[in-house]
């Protein structure tokens, strides 16, 4: 009798275990299916966004390009940084500059505001590719507001391999300082230099650029004042670094290293 009870109890436990296992498997399958459906839907929507953006960005109409920028901003906020999105941004950042459309020899797509907004959005995709696009715009554009946007985004991205970004910003500022000194651009140059200072090996070009701004009375007083303060900070930082190196060297000599 006891043996029979044990057999019945064991059978019951096995049945319950199988039922629980089957239910767990069903839940996992449903979850997996739902996640797969969400993934497919998300990918589909991203493709639709990319197609709409590409069409609008490649349109010759100015307003369509503005709408494209709005779509791009929304897509990036949703995590869509596909190749098509980045390519559309590249084209819009170079609208009338690196990609030109002419009618009877006349440039018809010189849209500085489009380039400016595209430069801002490129900072939201902080990659080597975006950095290269912004460097090209900074050194080639003639509009101070576009250069300022490119410089600002370069500072936000923060990539400065071999000091190439600092050199590009310095070149853009030097050219603008001669042709059309603009306080708003100078301010963005200072902000970018301040951000990139910790990532710059040779600060000579940086210091020279900031010094030029600090003594140029074409710029408003707050900009020149900021340049002067930044020079002092860089000088103080450089002195501290030298003192630290000297102490380290002295310590090594004392220890016989």
Q: Could you characterize the architecture of this molecule?
A:
It is a single chain. This protein has 257 residues and is an all-alpha fold. The protein is 76% helix and 2% strand. The protein has ten helices and two strands. A two-stranded antiparallel sheet has the order 1-2. A hairpin with a 2-residue loop joins strand 1 and strand 2 (106-107). Helix 1 packs parallel to helix 3, helix 2 crosses helix 3 and helix 8 (183-196) runs parallel beside helix 10. The longest helix has 56 residues, at 2-57. The protein starts with a helix and ends with a helix. Mean pLDDT is 82; it is low at 1-10 and 31-38.
Q: Can you give keywords for this protein?
A:
2% strand; 257 residues; mainly alpha; 2 strands
What's a quick, concise take on this entry?
The chain has a two-stranded antiparallel sheet. Mean pLDDT is 82; it is low at 1-10 and 31-38.
Q: Would you report the number of β strands? A: 2
Please tell me the overall pLDDT: 82
Rg, Cα atoms, Å: 29 Å
Structure class: mainly alpha
């Amino acid at each position: 009798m006891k043996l029979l009870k044990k057999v019945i109890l064991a059978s019951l436990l096995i049945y319950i275990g199988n039922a629980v296992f089957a239910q767990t498997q069903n839940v996992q399958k449903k979850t997996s299916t739902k996640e797969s459906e969400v993934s497919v839907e998300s990918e589909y929507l991203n493709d639709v966004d990319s197609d709409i953006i590409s069409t609008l960005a490649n349109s010759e109409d100015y307003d369509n390009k503005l709408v494209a920028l709005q779509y791009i901003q929304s897509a990036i906020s949703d995590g869509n940084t596909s190749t098509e999105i980045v390519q559309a941004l590249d084209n819009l950042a170079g609208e009338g500059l690196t990609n030109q459309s002419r009618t009877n020899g006349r440039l018809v797509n010189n849209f500085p505001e489009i380039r400016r907004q595209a430069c801002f959005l490129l900072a939201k995709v902080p990659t080597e590719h975006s950095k290269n696009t912004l460097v090209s715009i900074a050194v080639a554009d003639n509009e101070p507001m576009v250069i300022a946007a490119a410089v600002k985004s370069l500072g936000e991205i923060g990539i400065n391999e071999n000091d190439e970004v600092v050199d590009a910003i310095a070149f853009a500022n030097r050219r603008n300082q001669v042709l059309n000194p603009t306080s708003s651009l100078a301010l963005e140059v200072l902000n970018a230099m301040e951000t990139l200072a910790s990532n710059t090996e040779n600060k000579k070009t940086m210091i020279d650029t900031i010094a030029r701004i600090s003594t140029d009375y074409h710029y408003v007083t707050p900009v020149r004042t900021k340049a002067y303060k930044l020079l002092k900070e860089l000088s103080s930082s450089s002195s501290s670094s030298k003192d630290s190196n000297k102490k380290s060297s002295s310590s090594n000599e004392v220890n016989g290293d």
